[in-house]
Automatic annotation (TrEMBL):
Its EC number is 7.2.1.3. Its cofactor is heme b. The chain crosses the membrane at residues 12-32, 52-73, 85-103, 123-143, 155-179, 199-220. Residues 14-220 form the Cytochrome b561 domain. GO terms for cellular component: membrane. The lineage of its organism: Eukaryota, Viridiplantae, Streptophyta, Embryophyta, Tracheophyta. Keywords: Electron transport, Heme, Iron, Membrane, Metal-binding, Transmembrane, Transmembrane helix, Transport. It is found in: Membrane. This is ascorbate ferrireductase (transmembrane). It is a multi-pass membrane protein.
Length: 241
């Protein structure tokens, strides 16, 4: 017989706790220290709004929601098709958030090209593009089920791998963005390394790293563990327990 693995319960719990902590930290940073998102010699309120929306949509909308979509198959009751539909919808919301988060970078006063010069920006474009392709393949596969079962079984491991890789890449991209922003603030605006804002940004980075590990571990952990109810004896007789 098969039973639910008890190891998933604490993993799912800590995933929600760490996700909540990440959401609170990014909200605190974006709302309480929004003056840090203004570029020098600029007082445009519209630009400030776009700058604040970028981390909110990329962290809460893109990373946290896509992580929740990954965990859907671990805890959501119901049929497999129902879980797949919820997974697809949540990933669609995450994709829309990621696209909007990148769109906010297009609204800078220096134009589009000026906002795509760093490792963070390049990784962000690659990550969202890969995520979009992954979602489109999943969408077509979900609505078009005429493929042979053997083909679907061969594609599934790659779908899982690319999905987890993209999620990890999204977290790494966010980490590079936090490092880039904090370095800019400390060198250009003389922000202290031990001030509250620095502590919040560093804590946010640690929270994202912890969340990524928990989500991936929960995703690859076996959902069920098999219990052997029959024992083989030397005389080749089987006795049921």
């Amino acid at each position: 017989m098969a039973v639910d693995s008890p190891s998933l319960v604490p993993l799912l719990f800590f995933a929600r706790v760490s996700g909540l902590a990440v959401a609170m930290l990014v909200l605190l940073w974006a709302l309480a220290f929004n003056s840090s998102f203004l570029i020098p010699n600029s007082s445009s309120q519209e630009y400030l709004i776009y700058e604040v929306l970028h981390p909110l949509f990329m962290v809460i909308g893109f990373i946290l929601i896509s992580g929740e979509a990954i965990l859907v198959h671990r805890w959501l009751p119901g049929s497999r098709n129902f879980k797949k539909s919820v997974h697809l919808c949540l990933q669609g919301v995450a994709l829309a958030s990621g696209l909007f988060g990148i769109w906010t970078r297009f609204q800078g006063e220096d134009g589009i090209v000026a906002n795509f010069y760093s490792l963070h920006s390049w990784m962000g474009l690659i990550c969202v593009s890969l995520f979009g392709a992954q979602w489109l393949i999943g969408f077509l596969s979900f609505w078009h089920r005429g493929e042979a079962r053997t083909v679907r079984l061969k594609v599934l491991p790659w779908h899982v791998f690319v999905g987890l890789y993209t999620y990890g890449l999204a977290v790494v991209t966010a980490e590079t963005g936090l490092l880039e922003k904090l370095t800019f603030l400390q060198t250009k605006r003389n922000l202290s390394r031990y001030c509250p804002e620095s502590m919040i940004v560093n804590s946010l980075g640690l929270g994202l790293a912890l969340l990524c590990g928990i989500v991936i571990l929960a995703a690859v952990s076996p959902k069920h563990q098999t219990l052997q109810t029959k024992f083989m004896y030397p005389d080749a007789k089987c006795l049921s327990s």
